Amino acid sequence: MFIQTTNQKSFNQLQNDWHPIAIAAVTLPGTMQSITLLGQSLVLWCDDNNNFHLWLDQCPHRGMKLSLGTIQENQLVCPYHGWRFKPSGKCSYIPSLPQLLEDNLKGCVRQFKLLVKYGLIWGCLGEPVGDIFPYPEFDEKSRRIVFCGPYDLAASGPRIIENFLDMSHFPFVHEGILGDQSKMDIPDYQVEAFSDDIYGEGIRATKCFSWQPKASKKSNQPELVEYAYRVVHPFSAILNKQSSGQSSTSDGLADAISLHLQPVEPTITRAWIIMALNDFEHSEQELREFQDLIFLQDKSIVEHQEPKLLPLNPDAEVSVVSDRLSIAYRKYLKTNNLQYGVINHLAL
């Protein structure tokens, strides 16, 4: 059983978890954007002091979307009646009643918690039950950080994560890049639960090997590539990979690619990728374009799977030994009683 041994929590309460909603570096002062998280409409904006704010995208006066308004004098202005709201969320001015002093105004926008970690802004709709999982590769100085996305997909989060963990599709979906149909066999690999201070807790797979014509942007020949995967949250997973021509870093395999999902609706998802690479030769644009190509090939697959929700009943879909990690991921979701983006009729 893949049961978390410490800090076990039920992931059916996703409103109390942190979810990625934006890249911090491109969320500039004086800008705002509409966000949907777990079906909730939000507005994310940045004030003149470079502080981020995550609010309900609804004016408390008559329910207008604040994200359609403007930012003036470091305040968010509703486009309907011009009510102004300070970074604290409190209404400071009503144009139709200019004689009212701010102390006499009761209107206040509902605010939500957020934080910045790994270069992303993360939001929480409820009360966070813990910190965000570890991603130590992000802080290793020998790696180069590149952000990719966001990618919008008409697919459930668990379907997307499961695809990320799957190697046997490489020769078909990524033919000529990550796969070769003349070398399709997947050697057996190891899958286990883990819990430690460095990588957090979840499930991981190691000693995964795949023959790849072009394993990365810097690869110039076909080669056998070693992978390691770990799932650290139902909607976040990290892979490490290393080709025969790369040198390991002090913390393991040369490259790390993490996938983090923003659940918009049960079958609509926004995806973010953080790459921690051992490639200082290519431009960020070149590295991002390579990852974009791979991800968009996967997008065409996950958007056409049925059912849209990932079934957790082991008899719902036929599995084989090369699906060992996928099977473990579904057990992990079931053990943690996930109810969002899945078919889980036999929930714990």
Automatic annotation (TrEMBL):
Pfam families: Rieske, VanA_C. Residues 18-123 form the Rieske domain. SUPFAM superfamilies: Bet v1-like, ISP domain. GO terms for molecular function: 2 iron, 2 sulfur cluster binding; dioxygenase activity; iron ion binding. Coiled coil: none annotated. InterPro entries: ARHD_Rieske_2Fe_2S, Cholesterol_7-desaturase, Rieske_2Fe-2S, Rieske_2Fe-2S_sf, VanA_C_cat. The keyword Metal-binding applies. Keywords: 2Fe-2S, Dioxygenase, Iron, Iron-sulfur, Metal-binding, Oxidoreductase. This is Phenylpropionate dioxygenase, large terminal subunit. It comes from Polynucleobacter kasalickyi. The lineage of its organism: Bacteria, Pseudomonadati, Pseudomonadota, Betaproteobacteria, Burkholderiales.
